[in-house]
Amino acid sequence: MIKEGKFIDFEGGEGSGKSTQIRHLKKYFAEKYGAGRVVKTHEPGGGMPNYREQIFAIKQNNPGITDLELAEKELELFEVDRALHVKNFIRPKIAAGCIVLCDRFVPSTVAYQGYARGMNLETVHQANKKATSGIVPDLIILMDINPEIGIARKFQNQTNELTPFDKEKISFHERVRAGFLAQASADPNRWVIIDASKSETLITYQLIDILSERLGL
Fold this sequence. Notes:
alpha/beta, Rossmann fold, 8 helices, 5 strands
């Protein structure tokens, strides 16, 4: 029986299957520890739900905006949302002894706004540091997949909401992937890389084994 909360962040490009695996793991841990001990959340929108729509509308409302200008506007909204998310949801849930399964967190901002859009990485890191007030996931799961396969999944699945990020060029998504892999390489003790091209069920069992071994869950 777990005695303290755990914070697990799931990262990856579009169509990597993060949300699907979070759903499976939430069900598994709820059966093991009780529904009240496991929660799922996501970014953007974890702190302020309407921020998700605001972020996705930036490019549409600003035709001709450069990638760097777009990154700056995205970062500003992401960090306000993240600060509220950490303060009002993530930190209290961890303190209450919950397993928090988060769909995107700090690494996504580094990968998308930093590596993919070209924003200064130190600027991104400082903004993230301020917004999170020092909170760091116990484990980061990177659902790694070839961007062409991931994007194809998103467009083939008619139930998925397509976002402006989905519609970026493949070169953008390749930079996102490179950003995630660079972060994982820099902190191998906290990151675990999963081959997201494998079968859904196989990945779920693999994640259960990893979380048991690494976090005692």
